[in-house]
Amino acid sequence: MADVDQTPTARAPSPIGRRVSGRALLASCLVLAFAESVWFVLGLTGSPEPAAVGWIAAPVAMAMCAATLFRTAGMPGIGIAGRRFWRQLGVGCVFMLASVIVQAIGALEKPGHVALPANTPRVAVVGYLVAVLIPFWALIRLPGTAQTVQARLRLALDSSTVAIGGGLFVYYFFFAGSNDRSGGSGFWGQFVVGLLAMAVLATLTKILLSGAGPIDPGALRALALCMLIGGLSPALFQITNHHPQLAPPQLTDAFIATAVIYGCLRQQRAPRRAPSVRTDRERPRTWLPYLAVVATDALLLVGIFQPDDDRQIVVAVCAVAVTLLVVTRQLAAMHENEGLLAQLREQREILRHRVTHDALTTLANRDLFRERTEQELAAGADEARTAVLLIDLDDFKAVNDTLGHSVGDQLLVAVAARLRECVRPFDVVARLGGDEFAILLAGVDRSGIDGIVDRVLASFSRAIVVESHSLLVRASVGVAVADERDETGDLLRNADIAMYAAKAGGKGRHAYYSTGMHAELLERSELAAQLQEAIDHGQLRLVFQPVVRLPGGSPIGVEALVRWQHPARGLLAPGAFIPTAEQTGLIVPLGRWVMVEACHQLGQWRRDLGEAAPKAVGVNVAAPQLRQPGYAADVLSIIAAAGLTPDDILLEVTETAVVEGGSTFDALRELRTAGVRIGLDDFGTGQSSLGLLRECPVDVLKLDKSFVEHVAENREQAAIAEAVLHIAQALGLAAVAEGVESEAQAGRLYDIGYRFAQGFHFARPVPPAQIPDYFGADRGADGLRPRH
Ligand code: C2E
Ligand code: CA
Ligand code: CA
Fold first, then answer.
1. How close is the Cα of 727 to the center of ligand 3, in Å?
2. Per-residue pLDDT tens digits for 480-492
3. Which of 541, 544, 545, 561 most suits a substitution to test ligand 1, by most atoms within 8 Å of the C-beta?
4. Cis status of the peptide bond prior to 214, with omega within 30 of 0
5. Which of 102, 385, 393, 602 has its CA 20 to 30 A from that of 85?
6. How far, in Å, from the CA of 325 to the mean position of ligand 3?
């Protein structure tokens, strides 16, 4: 129950009940106002009796008004400032009520005279004064939307202008000269009324200019209306002076109360929202201050024709005051505008920097780089030459994958700093995206370019330390030098082509763009398109090369090798298309086709040859395949679909394919856990053979054929072959020697300790139909080319 009590709705009467009673009050008040008006009009024509009736509506309406105000102040959810505001209005209303009662009693005691402003009891005058000052004070204190010193100053100046101009107007037309100006109560009456008018106008201006803060705007407008009625009510003295039985409050109070009650209802119905904050941009505007200036000036002009009018001194003083205020306001606005302009310029500068620079490294971005290159080429001095260097980090992805993006980001920042050190202060260094950087060199000759390229490459030879990781990244650099015809796009594109050529030639290198490169690139993309077709239209073939046991040469397994039956170029070896397939991602569907086909073949041989069939088939796999999510599961399902078991397959991966680790390792581990065997292909040619063996799950090492070529006559090669064998033995792995072309090589390898081999000496890769010739049961275990 306790926590229910804490909710605002539980404490307050139901909103519907509140609205109904509020509406009833509003309606009664309106009726009172109507009755009042009737009475007042009757009073203009005679002296309706009893006089007390004329004094009923005002206090009753004020009492209802005060009650509604306090109820609004007690409403939940309007905030401290809102509560204080409505409560203060309520207090003001109570003073109003008391004053009107005092005035009414006075009027009834001395019928026919007391209603003159001069005869209003002083207590009532003070009461009215307090009644006006309290809401005035409440409105001034409202946390409006003017938040800056300038906005407050602006507001104060505008409000004062309107107050003086409007006050002057009221004074000029309604008081001066129309009543006795000899002081006493008359003076007090005028003083109060003048103050009232000015306060009303100043407050109105504030409401219009500064907004409401926590108060509902509709409520504020209603309050403004009531202030306006109150402010204009002194004008009624012009009438009541001739009808002493009438007093202004008799007509106005019920209207004022109606407006206030309506405002309260608006506030009660307002959705509870956070006070709206108006930005300086959407400053509210009003013509009131200008109207005040025009009014003052008009009175000044009128004075020219009435030189004797003693009101003119007041008009002149007010005109000077208003002029001073307006000048101050203008000066302040000018000052403020200058500030705003400076701020705007600064913001534009920041914005421009943001859109032209890379957030991570603060280097120029691609757009700015392009722009600067264009400018440089347009300037095109004769001797001076322009060059673009495109720098792409090698294997950055591996860093990101294994060490995380935070390390990757820091690495990029460090690289950016190094690149900046390599160039002259006025050269543009940019990050084009990812791990791709560019440098724009202006006014350089070939040796200058060479110097900077060397410096860039050398800067990568020092390890970069990031979060205690010492990283040795390398980069491939493509260089394009402008000639007269070059446009920006060309220069950057040429550098890009050169960079690809540099990468293709091995990593950590640079290449200058040459015309042939473009043709090569085109050729490659054409080849890619054809390869896609080859995959789709069954132009791929598999050949199989037997793997044999030493010394006898009896075949035990096969390795599947892909061929492309090209419609125009004939049968293509993998060297002609596998690199392109890897670069374009086509290796993924191609490799899958190989896997399906190889498994299918082994299944077929099993059915045809039974026990004599190859024990296993080796399938070559490239890095992009291993990176595919779900690769391991896919392979296992292919194996199962062919009716094979995982250990029938030897997955051959190169060291370079697995060196990046990460998801590649995960795929290999998953496959190996399932029983698939893993072979490290071309062993010895990669970078980190030994380190890799520690982390990568492997069953077979395939000694690269470059170590076999001279193994028979070259001691060093024999030593390497022997070392590889020792590693395999130490780790409990099988070792296969590849590329065995002669009897001598086979013999030497056997002497070193190799028991498995593969090579033209035993068998060339052959179409699947010929495999039974090697494995057929009739060949027995005598081997292909028995060693004698
Ligand atoms: P690899 O995996 O090292 O395959 C052995 C390569 O050595 C084959 O060349 C084979 O024909 C050749 N070879 C076999 N014995 C001898 C020999 O006695 N002397 C010489 N000089 N060479 C011999 P191939 O078929 O041209 O394949 C080249 C490479 O292409 C393969 O090297 C492998 O890395 C890749 N490759 C072949 N098929 C596929 C495939 O289906 N997928 C992938 N990703 N790569 C493949
Ligand atoms: Ca292989
Ligand atoms: Ca190999």
1. 18
2. 988 766 666 688 8
3. 561
4. no
5. 102
6. 93
